[in-house]
Amino acid sequence: MPESPDLSVVADALHAAIAGRSIAAVSAPGPLAVRGTPAELDALVGQRVASIRRRGKFLLVDLERDAIAINPMLTGRLQLAPPGAALPAKTAVVLTFSERPRGPKDAAAWTRGAGWLLPDTGPAEVRYKDPTQMGKVYLRPSGIDRPIPGLGEAEQGPDADDPALTLDIWRDRIRRHPGELKNLLRNQSFVAGIGNAYSDEILHAAGLLPFRKRSSLAAEEVDALYQATRETLAAAITILRERVPPTFEKQVRDFLAVHDKGGRACPRCGTRITEVKAGGSITSYCRGCQH
Ligand SMILES: [Zn+2]
Question: Using CA atoms, how far apart are residues 222 and 206, in angstroms rounded to an integer?
């Protein structure tokens, strides 16, 4: 499942590659993924892209009038390609964009001059594919207030890597959540963007066990969890910026320390990593150095 670091890299890349272009054509080979009417989909054509950004586990595309919100869920992925390149299997939505005068001034520094940016003088395409069809592409026509599950005000806390989420705010917010730490980190109403993989990584970095209760944490452990959250997400983004382009549809996870690494040696203490399967998801942790 794409999480905050994965989607941050995709959002930066698509903003750099697409903002300033207009939608020239749209098609939905997998119409089940689309939440909106065919007329609303057709009405996207001709609109210029103002920005592409991430919020929690959503990718938000702001057009000059309407907007699109993509929630990739488990298996949704986005590909950047020149039009005419072979469509990936299980492509659900294809957006074709016009040429543009120039790229956006506010493109992320790491994207500048990248070889995978398609020429401004030619068209570009973004394909959304989803083998399990669990993810959704929500159309948000101007003037229609369509609720999007997971994106409501009360459903989403601050982004876990939002600079505005200070240690003081973290300490205050975490008081409302007494339960197990892994569930706490994955609770989007606490902080947004963390899922199954990065919750394991953050807890390993913090030296805390995933099934430990927040109510058992000492004050310095609450602070350590904040630091570990920030450092783990930032370090992952640095690696993913190097490793993901130009195949943005690829999920790179091999560099993780513990998640899905059951049976291997912990990179910090050498103990064999423990893996627990519960509710269809894997939790990995180290009994040697997480307490
Ligand atoms: Zn260890």
Answer: 9
